[in-house]
Fold this sequence. Notes:
It contains 20 helices and 23 strands. It is of the alpha/beta class and 548 residues long.
Amino acid sequence: MSSRTQTKFIFVTGGVTSSLGKGIISASLGKLLQGRGYSVTIQKFDPYLNIDPGTMNPYEHGECYVTDDGAETDLDLGHYERFLNVPTSQANNVTTGRVYNNVITKEREGAYLGKTVQVVPHITDEIKRNFYKVAENGEYDIVITEIGGCVGDIEALPFIEAVRQARLELGSQNSMVIHLTLVPYLRAAGELKTKPTQHSVKQLLEAGVQPNILVCRTEHHIPMEMRRKIALFCNVDLNAVIESCDASTIYDVPLLMQKEKLDEIVLMKLSLPAYQDPNLDNWLSFLKKLKNPQGELRIGLVGKYVELPDAYKSIVEGFVHAGAVNEVKVKLEYIKAEDLDERDNAAKIITSLDGVLVAPGFGERGMEGKINACSVAREHKVPFFGICLGMQSAVIAFGRDMVGFAGANSSEMEEELQYPVIDLMEDQKNLSQMGGTMRLGAYPCELKEGSKAYEAYGSAKISERHRHRYEFNNEYLEQYEAAGMKATGINPKSGLVEIVEIPDHPFYVGAQFHPEYKSTVENPHPLFVAFVKAVKELKNSKGEVVSA
């Protein structure tokens, strides 16, 4: 029997409106099934024409999440990894752009033997091929496939058609559809309304897909009578109408779905045994700490895209995980980098905080503000953590303030520089395509014993994910170290600097990589944990926070 027939497939669609939380529902269901002893992976199909989100403005699509194998993906893959603690890959995120690109490439190569290439069957076959691809090695018992967008969107039609065909191929015992809809509350009428859900399911039925389970997003509890009405009009079992109320934290959702018996119903419909009740001990321990903090820390997040917190989603969640470990609530204060362009204003804002993180990004806008934040944090002993461009900003600030490089900058920001302390490496300069110069995905790093990074990780050899183009210029390394900024993490193959620290500071660490991508509920990232711990200890030493 092929691995495809052994693996069960769950397709998750959405209707009425976007942003209902398909990703969180998918991740929560995956967590419950994983807790019952099944191996689970989740994939996301996005209906936009971009090949991937790598070139998209964060205001358009939120954070671009990077996997170990260097795929630039949708931010929902971050949720999948944070919940399941299982790495994803390029195969877990597919866009319309990639599907069409693959089909057109095959057509140019003559793979279709001169046939007319059409949406059905060629595009839908390519979509199905990607549905099944993650199951080919037989590693997973269950594959959850989230279809982005809304049922009824023109761009979603090929995906819904591919789901219809896949269900026929796989059979009802090996596949199912969960449809997420909105049950809105009309304040003027004082009641919930089921009509949007009915219309959404009707659109799905018109495409030939009958949902097996309805997950109804709502601000108020859905009474049993209304559930019966939804079940009757939408042609689903009464126990398959699942209520999904707003939660205080996304990490409550697996418990809410367990209470609604979502995992039990899924197993029953897929003819799978319920081996055990979900083992959520670690999850419950995390939630207990998350909800019972012993104090609060105010940490500033300095960035270009702070109007949209989703642009820094993994960083935000990294602080949630690290706060729980340290039994404190991390209250993030979003600071627009341009607001720190004036040094006096930067000093006023940064010194009022318990700690500061300077966020990653691309481009010149807000750069001087980031550099000022790094300088103020260093001078006033405010715990500091810099990620990617945040680390580079710290290097530039230190060069200007402490090494005597008055014009220090990154060659990303200025072409003609006396001190290009951040620069492209020689082997990158002749590449014409920008993508070819990007360092993406996991790279090894060796840490120096005695450093804060080594202390945090408890290991000399680590691997972290990158998404950047420019590097610390090693021509200046000796002068930097002589002035007091140490390179404590080095790539063993290239010799590139991955981590810088200032030892005589409560916490001043910059990482060229993106530690936030690897922080999960069960494995909070060591650098986030160490940073929050340092902030907490410094505040404790001033007698300002209750010790946990």
